[in-house]
Design brief:
The structure is a single chain. Helix 1 runs parallel beside helix 2. The mean pLDDT is 90. The chain is built from 6 helices and 9 strands. 29% of the residues lie in helices and 32% in strands. The protein starts with a strand and ends with a strand. Helix 3 links the parallel strand 4 and strand 5. The chain has a single domain, classed as Vaccinia Virus protein VP39 (Rossmann fold, 3-Layer(aba) Sandwich). The protein is globular. By secondary structure, it is an alpha/beta fold.
């Protein structure tokens, strides 16, 4: 299957999350704030739709990382350098922007499956398990005044995520939001406040 988005054609392979509203909203937000020359990392790159559209429409240098080996392969096939790894555990260096569309659906043990699509969706019992890990790790991989750009859903608890970011020292800004049938999606930027 192929998807066309922002002058970019993306091929989707099996076992990879198919981009939908959340991916497109985050991609639009990223494109609106990129200044062209930044060094960018996309965590949970999936099909590579966000990274590939950034590569096609800006001069930014972008790399993707995904825990799903099929997703890392798909991103590479869509023309973006990608690494197979878990969040930021195998990343060295610092970035101007780190983008993340996290698994945010609250998922109980009995609901979990062993397939790769579950990994792209499963946010733990409150939907914030992976988000919290990411927030704690990301600050160590940002240049001074670097930012994270993350998608958050009302299903996960936007205020809870915002409060967690503030408690970790992030200055939080709302970049964009959209309401869909059963949820509100918000793209938030977080900059570490120097103490």
């Amino acid at each position: 299957m192929n998807i066309q988005f922002k002058n970019t054609r993306i091929k989707i392979i099996p076992d990879v999350y198919e981009p939908c509203e959340d991916s497109f909203l985050l991609a639009q937000a990223a494109l609106s704030i990129i200044q062209n020359s930044e060094k960018i990392l996309e965590v949970g790159c999936g099909s590579g739709i966000i990274s590939a559209s950034i590569k096609k429409n800006t001069k930014a240098r972008i790399t993707g990382i995904d825990i799903n080996p099929h997703a890392a392969k798909c991103t590479k096939e869509n023309g973006v350098e990608a690494i197979h790894g878990d969040l930021l555990s195998c990343i060295k260096g610092k970035f101007d922007i780190i983008i993340f569309n996290p698994p945010y659906l609250p998922t109980e043990d009995k609901e979990r499956t062993s397939d790769w699509i579950n990994v792209a969706l499963d946010g733990g019992s409150d939907g914030r398990k992976i988000i919290n890990r990411f927030l704690e790790e990301a600050c160590h991989h940002l240049v001074e005044n670097g930012r994270i750009l993350m998608l958050v859903s009302s299903i996960t608890g936007i205020e809870e995520v915002r409060s967690r970011m503030i408690s970790l020292g992030y200055y939080v800004e709302e970049i964009s939001k959209e309401r869909y049938n059963f949820e509100e999606l918000l793209v938030i930027a977080g900059t570490i406040v120097k103490k």
